[in-house]
Design brief:
TIM Barrel, alpha/beta, 305 residues, 10 helices, globular, two-stranded antiparallel sheet
């Protein structure tokens, strides 16, 4: 499918290829009576560690104390940060991370996601320095990924792990990041890189460069199932982004969701991906377009989102 595309695929083409490829792995596993991870190398771990995106300190404490998560992710920018003077944003970011670390203690990992909103690498470095005392698990896409050399220069100066990858669509783009020494953690999105096998190729390139993989996955139960089989069979996987599916539409769409236990997902032994869709339930929830609202800067310019 990729070879048959006249121009290199971007997000739309590769997302379509990924969806078809995921379905084919599920069919292959079911036809052979084995879970998908057995077809791509076999299990190298017993469970899959996950983290939850949170907004506030209270959200983070509930995730840890009530749900058993051992890691969370939040934005380092404070609420309303898009409209703040830069000096104030830095001060409030420090206060926010100090509050998170005091509330969660030293044993809980905290990932940080500036959402690629910072244009200048030097400002991204300033923000990284402000949050460094609170030992973030990673600093995710502080700047946009178009300029790999700029990301590499930032990575050379940062003293916390830099993660990137959710906006990269092929192994060729990931190869550029690896070759430039521009990251510590690759956040492949299995729903847009061309599928499970392409993600395994990217993970192998990363492993040879001593990089780890933490898939981007603020998605639904099918994408999560695919990621679990990837994680189960990939030695340099470290943690998976996870969206809870215990209630609401995401729960309704499958007959039985992946089992969550003490901050981890249980690796299924059922054939294929280990989940079954409820097509009647899915029909109740028609797809809705989604996009972030634009950021309007004080002078009227449109900022990065």
């Amino acid at each position: 499918m990729y070879n048959g595309s006249r121009f290199p695929g971007g997000s739309v083409i590769n997302a379509a290829i990924s969806g078809i490829e995921h379905a084919l792995w599920d069919l292959k596993g079911k036809s052979l009576g084995v879970p998908v991870y057995q077809l791509i190398g076999g299990r190298c771990r017993d469970k899959v560690r996950v983290y939850l995106g949170v907004g506030s300190v209270d959200d983070a404490k509930r995730a840890v104390e009530e749900r058993g998560f051992t890691a969370v992710k939040t934005s380092p920018q404070p609420a309303g940060g898009d409209a703040m003077p830069w000096g104030k944003l830095l001060r409030e970011a420090g206060r926010k991370l100090e509050a998170f670390r005091k509330a969660l203690g030293d044993e809980i990992d905290i990932g940080l996601d500036p959402h690629a909103k910072i244009f200048e690498p030097v400002r991204a470095l300033e923000l990284a320095e402000v949050v460094r005392p609170y030992r973030p698990m990673f600093f995710e896409e502080p700047i946009r990924p178009e300029n790999v050399q700029a990301m590499a220069r930032l990575h050379d100066k940062m003293q916390i792990p830099l993660a990137t990858g959710e906006q990269l669509y092929t192994k060729y783009e990931f190869q550029d990041v690896v070759a430039a020494g521009a990251a510590d953690i690759l956040q492949t999105d299995l729903a847009i890189v061309g599928g499970l096998l392409e993600a395994k190729k990217i993970a192998a390139m990363a492993e040879a460069a001593y990089l780890t993989i933490a898939p981007h996955n603020p998605l639904g139960p099918v994408a999560t199932a695919v990621c679990v089989h990837f994680a189960a069979s990939t030695p340099n996987f470290i943690i998976l982004e996870y969206r809870e599916t215990t209630a609401g539409p995401l729960r309704d769409m499958v007959l039985e969701p992946m089992k969550f236990q003490d901050g981890h997902l249980v690796i299924p032994d059922a054939p294929g991906l280990g989940i079954e869709l409820d097509e009647k339930a899915i029909a109740k929830y028609p797809a809705k377009p989604w996009r972030r609202a634009p950021v309007i800067e004080p002078d009227g310019n449109i900022g990065y989102i």
